[in-house]
């Protein structure tokens, strides 16, 4: 009899927690946000995008702002973000998300507008649009996914690639004497008066996920203040292009990425500004 | 009817934008059209509209994308080098089917070229410009009055077809002052609720703006849908002006500023007994191929006069299907031909074709 080791024996099958007849016996402590589309995501196993998509949609659901939120998707792995987020969205050309978001937000100042961009999109081809949007203090949230590599085109060097890091276009490791050092986007943008809240987080542990969720929650809320741009940089795991297992990728963030990209708040609003909350 | 005003073409266009209900203008300074941004920076806030000087033409066209995608009337304007920078954004706008108005106050190129008027952007304007299969509706004004009128028309056509509209003017019409009258305007009803990203209420599916269709089967369906739209545009939106074509033996074909010069050349030629008419395409896309083919059965020769090395002449030749000789006369580099110069060239050509 042919065997297939991927088929689980019946006893190991997971039984849904809220079985219909017994529904009342369970307290729901967690649910998938209704703002997240019930679709199979195209992301690789161990990728940070799906998790961050979910966090953003949790925040939108919790703040009850689905009808007031417009997102801007980038070009890169998250180009299909609008397939997963059940909100109105626009797909921007590569690097232009902040300009598109400016167009949306200036016409609809009371909406919550965010961009979702990778490191190639934001820090290479779109650095001008990003910097100027922040310098104008556009009241948008920029979610910046930094995994130090071009994901969709499968592993080329990004502006944020670590010194010495091997990619398909830096096969001997990034030579900073040739390509310069990785751009620390959060620190750079925090210097602009137009930025209101700048933080760098990760999603490689439960604790990190909680902190990122909190950062996203704050950043969405701060849009109500019309005080400037919020930038949440998130160090993303990219096991496929880092040529690692998902577990190794999680460790790589703690052991290597944070040396160049330390986690934590870089610019926080003063308490006076936050009195409203 | 409102009174006549004396205005620059660029300013008349800017004022028309306000009257046409333009919600937002995004631009970047470049000669010879900086007056548009200056005028609107002064006037738009008085009407609670959005005006913004972007960091580049790349940014301004993408701001237009965002605003148009949210359902607002948005426009930008620039001149040739800036329009080149916008081609990426225009291709995305066409792909995502967003209505907006783009104005090119054409100067002479290539490269930085010069700030003087030119018509060297004809190919870029009418054949696509950016990557991929798309077309813009292209309106070519020949007067300050038309620079104003075509703002209204341009916005309406953009909304009607969910397609970017380009007004292709030039540095002379943009800079010169003429009388202009702003006619009463009623904005046609358009419902953008089925696609504009205004925030998703529970009562409808999410709207998203994109030009991405990764599956080739779906992309081709999208391409075919666009082609169907361009076909409708070709069938319904050809606009042209004819002068003295009823008895014409010869025909000038010229648009914009060149048509203004040809008008004078036509008068001089007629005084000399040369029965010449003028066909002025108002829409450069869709192009008046059919009317030119009809006239090919009537005239002995057509002469395309342009401020470039011969671009529109290719469309004239395409139109007449080899039935009559199609000649070209042009000046470049910001130089403009005099009417006498054109007539002299016309007479030489008539002699040449008579001898052969």
Explain this structure to me?
The complex is a heterodimer of chains A (277) and B (356). Chain A is of the alpha/beta class and 277 residues long. Chain A has a single domain (41-267), classed as Thiamin diphosphate (ThDP)-binding fold, Pyr/PP domains (Rossmann fold, 3-Layer(aba) Sandwich), CATH 3.40.50. Chain A has helices spanning 49-62, 81-84, 97-107, 119-125, 127-135, 176-179, 185-190, 206-222, 239-242, 246-260, and strands at residues 69-73, 88-91, 112-118, 141-146, 149-150, 156-157, 195-202, 229-235, 264-267. A 7-stranded mixed β-sheet of chain A has the order 2-1-3-4-8-7-9, sandwiched between helices. In chain A, strand 5 (149-150) and strand 6 (156-157) form a beta hairpin. In chain A, helix 1 crosses helix 8 (206-222) and helix 4 crosses helix 5 (127-135). Chain A starts with 48 loop residues before the first helix and ends in a 10-residue tail after the last strand. In chain B, the strands form 3 sheets. A 7-stranded mixed β-sheet of chain B has the order 3-2-4-5-7-6-13, sandwiched between helices. In chain B, strand 11, helix 9 (256-271) and strand 12 form a beta-alpha-beta unit. In chain B, helix 1 (9-19) runs parallel beside helix 6 (144-161). Chain B is an alpha/beta fold. Chain B has 2 domains: 4-199 and 223-236, Thiamin diphosphate (ThDP)-binding fold, Pyr/PP domains (Rossmann fold, 3-Layer(aba) Sandwich), CATH 3.40.50; 242-355, 3-Layer(aba) Sandwich (Rossmann fold), CATH 3.40.50.920. Chain B is globular and about 75 Å long. Chain B starts with a strand and ends with a helix. Chain A binds chain B through residues 66-70, 72-73, 79-80, 82, 85-93, 96, 99-108, 111, 128-129, 132, and chain B through 23-24, 26, 50, 52, 54-56, 58-60, 62-70, 72, 74, 88-89, 92, 96, 197-202, 206-212, 214. Strand 2 (88-91) of chain A pairs parallel with strand 9 of chain B.
The backbone outline of chain A, from C-alpha atoms, is globular
CATH topology of chain A: Rossmann fold
What is the CATH architecture annotation of the largest domain in chain B? 3-Layer(aba) Sandwich
Strand arrangement in the largest pleated sheet of chain A: 2-1-3-4-8-7-9
Question: CATH class of the largest domain in chain B, please?
Answer: Alpha Beta
Q: How many β strands of chain B by DSSP?
A: 15
Kindly report the name of the CATH homologous superfamily of the largest domain in chain B: Thiamin diphosphate (ThDP)-binding fold, Pyr/PP domains
What is the H/E order of chain B?
EHEHEHEHEHEHEHEEHEEHEEHEHEH
Structural class of chain A: alpha/beta
- Could you give a short account of the major beta sheet of chain A? 7 strands, mixed
CATH-scheme architecture of chain A: 3-Layer(aba) Sandwich
């Amino acid at each position: 009899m042919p065997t297939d080791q991927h088929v689980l024996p019946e006893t190991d099958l997971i039984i849904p927690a809220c079985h219909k007849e017994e529904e009342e016996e369970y307290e729901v402590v967690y649910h998938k946000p209704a703002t997240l589309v019930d679709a199979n995501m195209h992301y690789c196993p161990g990728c940070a995008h799906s998790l961050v998509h979910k966090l953003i949609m949790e925040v939108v659901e919790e703040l009850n702002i689905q009808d007031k939120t417009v997102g801007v998707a980038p070009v890169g792995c998250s180009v299909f973000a609008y397939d997963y987020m059940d909100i109105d969205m626009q797909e921007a050309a590569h690097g232009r998300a902040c300009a598109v978001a400016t167009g949306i937000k200036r016409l609809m100042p009371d909406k919550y507008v965010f961009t979702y961009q990778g490191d190639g999109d934001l820090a290479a081809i779109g650095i001008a649009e990003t910097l100027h949007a922040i310098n104008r203090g556009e009241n948008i949230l920029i979610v910046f996914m930094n995994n130090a590599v071009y994901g969709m085109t499968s592993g080329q060097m990004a502006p944020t690639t670590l010194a010495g890091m091997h990619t398909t276009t830096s096969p001997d490791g990034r030579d900073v004497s040739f390509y310069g050092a990785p751009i620390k986007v959060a620190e750079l943008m925090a210097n602009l008066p137009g930025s209101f809240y700048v933080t760098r987080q990760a999603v490689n542990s439960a604790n990190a996920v909680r902190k990122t969720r909190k950062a996203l929650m704050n950043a969405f809320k701060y849009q109500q203040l019309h005080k400037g741009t919020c930038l949440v940089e998130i160090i993303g795991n990219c096991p496929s292009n880092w040529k690692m297992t998902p577990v190794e990728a999680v460790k790589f963030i703690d052991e290597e990425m944070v040396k160049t990209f330390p986690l934590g708040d870089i610019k926080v609003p003063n308490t006076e500004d936050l009195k409203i909350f | 009817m409102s009174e006549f005003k004396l205005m620059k073409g660029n300013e008349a266009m800017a004022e028309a934008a306000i009257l046409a209900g333009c919600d937002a203008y995004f631009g970047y300074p470049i000669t010879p059209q900086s007056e548009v941004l200056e005028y609107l920076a002064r006037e738009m806030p008085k009407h609670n509209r959005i005006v913004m000087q972007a960091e580049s033409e790349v940014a301004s066209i993408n701001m237009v994308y965002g605003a148009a995608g949210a359902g607002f009337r948005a426009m930008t304007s620039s001149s040739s080098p800036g329009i080149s920078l916008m081609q990426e954004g225009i291709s995305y706008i066409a792909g995502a089917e967003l209505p907006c108005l783009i104005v090119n106050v054409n100067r002479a190129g290539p490269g930085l070229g010069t700030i003087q008027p030119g018509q060297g952007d004809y190919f870029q304007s009418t054949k696509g410009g950016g990557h991929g299969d798309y077309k813009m509706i292209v309106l070519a004004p020949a007067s300050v009055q038309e620079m104003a009128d075509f703002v209204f028309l341009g916005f309406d056509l953009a909304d009607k077809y969910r397609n970017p509209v380009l007004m292709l003017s030039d540095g002379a019409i943009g800079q010169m002052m003429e009388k202009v009258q702003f006619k009463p305007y009623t904005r046609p009803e358009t419902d953008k609720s089925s696609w504009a990203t205004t925030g998703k209420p529970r009562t409808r599916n999410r709207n998203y703006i994109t030009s991405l269709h990764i599956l080739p089967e779906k992309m081709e369906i999208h391409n075919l849908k666009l082609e169907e739209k361009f076909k409708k545009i070709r069938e319904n939106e050809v606009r042209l002006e004819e002068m003295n074509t009823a008895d014409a033996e010869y025909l000038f074909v010229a648009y914009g500023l060149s048509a203004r010069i040809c008008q004078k050349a036509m008068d001089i030629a007629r005084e000399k007994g040369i029965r010449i008419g003028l066909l002025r395409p108002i829409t450069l896309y869709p192009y008046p191929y059919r009317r030119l083919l009809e006239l090919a059965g009537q005239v002995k020769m057509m002469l395309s006069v342009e401020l470039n090395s011969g671009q529109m002449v290719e469309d004239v030749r395409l139109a007449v299907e080899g039935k009559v000789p199609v000649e070209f006369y042009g000046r470049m580099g910001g130089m403009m031909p005099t009417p006498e110069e054109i007539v002299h060239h016309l007479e030489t050509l008539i002699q040449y074709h008579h001898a052969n």
